[in-house]
């Protein structure tokens, strides 16, 4: 048994959640916020058998697209006023951790 922790962009969640449900891969969804861009993410927790990890990674790879977007990264003081400088950054994709599960109980 493995615990798969996947942090995905909130825009990618509906398709990922639908596909996981279709493939009967139970999950818990937590609403989270990224620390750098402060945008909405979803963190998915999946307790799955080791042989299903490639299937889960395939789903995440198919539906979690990497894209460019402009974001306001902060305020810079300039002559007594504040300027907001939008910067193009890469967002999306998935960050995935696979952790060994020592024990699993369904009570």
CATH class: Alpha Beta
Low-confidence stretches: 75-81
CATH architecture designation: 2-Layer Sandwich
What is the helix/strand order?
EHEEHEEE
- Please, what is the average pLDDT? 86
**Order of strands across the main sheet:** 2-3-1-6
Radius of gyration: 18 Å
What characteristic shape results from the CA principal axes?
elongated
Largest sheet: 4 strands, antiparallel
Give your account of this protein's structure.
By secondary structure, this protein is an alpha+beta fold. The chain has a single domain, classed as Alpha-Beta Plaits. Helix content is 20%, strand content 51%. The protein contains two helices and six strands; from the N terminus they run E-H-E-E-H-E-E-E. The protein starts with a strand and ends in a 7-residue tail after the last strand.
Question: What is shown here, in short?
Answer:
The chain has 107 residues and is α+β, with helices and mostly antiparallel strands. It has helices spanning 13-22, 53-63, and strands at 2-9, 28-33, 40-48, 66-78, 81-92, 94-100.
Question: What is the fold's blueprint, element by element?
Answer:
Blueprint: E1 2-9, H1 13-22, E2 28-33, E3 40-48, H2 53-63, E4 66-78, E5 81-92, E6 94-100
Antiparallel strand pairs: 1-3, 1-6, 2-3, 4-5
Helix pairs in contact: 1-2
Main features:
elongated, two-stranded antiparallel ribbon, Alpha-Beta Plaits, alpha+beta, 107 residues, 51% strand, four-stranded antiparallel beta sheet
């Amino acid at each position: 048994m493995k615990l798969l922790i996947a942090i995905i962009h909130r825009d990618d969640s509906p398709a990922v959640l639908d596909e996981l449900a279709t493939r009967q891969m139970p999950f818990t969804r937590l609403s989270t916020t990224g620390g750098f861009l402060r945008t909405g993410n979803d963190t998915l927790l999946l307790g799955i058998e080791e042989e299903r990890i490639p299937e889960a990674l395939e789903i995440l790879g198919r539906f979690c697209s990497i894209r460019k977007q402009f974001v306001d990264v902060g305020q810079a003081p300039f002559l007594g006023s504040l300027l907001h400088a939008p910067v193009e950054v890469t967002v999306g994709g998935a960050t995935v951790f696979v952790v060994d599960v020592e024990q699993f109980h369904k009570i």
